[in-house]
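User: Fold this one for me? It's DUF2461 domain-containing protein.
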Amino acid sequence: MIQQQTLDFLSDLVDNNNREWFMDNKVRYDQARQNVIDFTTELIKLMHKVDPALSPELDAKKCVMRIYRDVRFSKNKTPYKNNFGISLPTTGTKLGGAEYYFQIQPGGKSFIAGGYWMPDAAHLKAIRQEIDYNGHDLTNVIDDAAFVKLFGDFRAQDKLKTLPRDYTADHEHIELLKLKSFIALHHIKDKDILSAKAAENVAALCSKICPLNVFLRNAIL
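Assistant: Here's what I get for DUF2461 domain-containing protein.
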């Protein structure tokens, strides 16, 4: 389970996002990161049962993302992220593609997400083709009442302002074809993050995302 000390470290980091403070609190960071790694180990076992495409052999340490920010091309020069990110790929061990993502961030900002964020050109073309051919398979997933209650309107994501190449405005699924990403996201309260059943609850949420990931994987295989 995620410990209160882990959230406390992240909260304090927001107010002290500098190298000097971080190095003075390196022990706290190491403890928080290990807590997240242990949680991830438990989550991987549960997630393989939810989605067999997610390998039970995933290395939890590699699934926990670096806390160090790449500030080279950012106006925000703070050196550290104010969250722990857990990325769980479903195509081997390489990150990217259709996957599950869990972000731990205090203040009610934690969330579970799944799908495919900003596919490259080849994958985006393949996903649009799959929507063109089998769009009803996707709408059966995203328009299900339980899915909408958890993740909202799937079509209300970043999308093209113009029509995608090779598709017309009267296409039955044009709003899906215009999407740039294919993500389902659900925010999680701090008290639920700290629950002894947090990993089970996250896996249960991912079970609702799984059919979306299956559709996306089938599109790009």
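One thing worth pointing out: The mean pLDDT is 95.
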